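Give me the fold.
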Amino acid sequence: PTRRRVKTMKVALTGATGFIGSHVLAELREHGHEVVALVHNEAGAKTAEANGATPVVVDLADRARVAQLLADTDGAVHTASPGDATSADVDNAVVDAVIEAYAGTGKPYVQISGLWVYGDNTAITEDSPFRAPAMVAWKEPIERRILAADGPRTTILVSSVAYGDGGGAVPGALLGSPRDESGKLIMLGDGRQHWSTVHAADLATAFRLALETDDARGYYVLGDGSNPTVAEITEAVAVAVGAPGAVPGSVEEAKSRFGEYFAEVLLLDQSTAAEKAQRELGWRPTRPSLVEEFRHGSYRQ
């Protein structure tokens, strides 16, 4: 049985105003934890403060300042990502700061990753080989470095496609799908590929559990177990946007729509059962599936 700490913690959080980070902030506050939000401007500070955090405006690339802020906390969660060519630099800087601030402390550090690093695989577990497409190939070396570091108790939460509350980059991209001459949505590729998905609120629960569970460490793959095909998802998107249905597309169309790097990850065939997170963290996803959300929930237009 896992040991859970019940004392409240002072937690540093990056990405507190982002789609996933805002859900993590709400989850931590709801369970009594104090949150220091590391934000990059005054607008972000206002948003984080309105949502119950103590904001600090800081450049995440400023290792010394970030380490100084982390030293005064009981744990840290890193969800911020520029989502561009500087992403690796930001992650490396945060990891450097964590290694410095948490040296020899055993304090918990939780970092987000994404399922795309495993490539095509319909039975993904934490032991699966990394076959990262170009878009996410930089992640694993950084994760290996922080996992090997002496000091923090590190967990890497590997998120499936995140959705919920009408948000998320991938659901948003699907809502804007092009249509054929009859008005039907065009799928990404032939639509037969599976996607593993997770509601952002369920994902946020996993972040809290990883902080609170004293013997949690290493990788945890997170997905709700529904593993729908892109055809099933796009048919549901058609309901959300009032289109008469969906038709298969092609690899070429997906690449022209999203560019080679992004299309490559969207065409991956991936599924997971997330057994380790359920067994070791006691994590139980409870929110409606992505297909249900498109058909009946927050994405209906």
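Residues 10-163+197-224+273-285 form a domain with the Rossmann fold fold (CATH 3.40.50.720).
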